[in-house]
Amino acid sequence: MTDTATQPTDTARGRRKIRLGTVISDKMDKTVIVQVRSSKAHRLYRKTVQQRTRFKVHDEKNECGVGDLVRITETRPLSREKRWRVLEIVEKAK
To answer: With CB atoms 3.0 to 4.6 Å apart as the test, which of 16, 25, 36, 92 could cross-link to 21 if both were Cys?
Structure first.
């Protein structure tokens, strides 16, 4: 897998998933939608298939903009659909 693989964080809190994705929407207050891409081999044909997953992510300071590359981490449920928060902005959009 790529950089989106599961990596251990703080052992006191247990292992939390970390993903690398792109912000595709920032219209909500303190929430952004992040799209994470991954590739996987098809079960029957063994062709590499691109997958994409969209996460609603908590952005406390409203720093993220559309097109930013961000690292997100799993967290406790913050709302009905938010289970992730922004760990860091890796690269700002041009």
So the answer is: 36
- For the 21-91 domain, the top CATH level (class) is mainly beta
Q: What distance in Å separates the CA atoms of residue 20 and residue 38, rounded to the nearest whole number?
A: 10
pLDDT in tens, 10-63: 667 789 999 999 999 999 999 999 999 999 999 999 999 999 999 999 999 999
Q: Please state whether beta strands 31-41 and 48-58 pair in parallel, antiparallel, or not at all (unpaired).
A: antiparallel
Ordered by start, the domain boundaries in the chain are 21-91
Structure tokens at 60: 């406390």
3-state secondary structure the chain: CCCCCCCCCCCCCCCCCEEEEEEEEEEECCEEEEEEEEEEECCCCCCEEEEEEEEEEECCCCCCCCCCEEEEEECCCCCCCCCEEEEEEEECCC
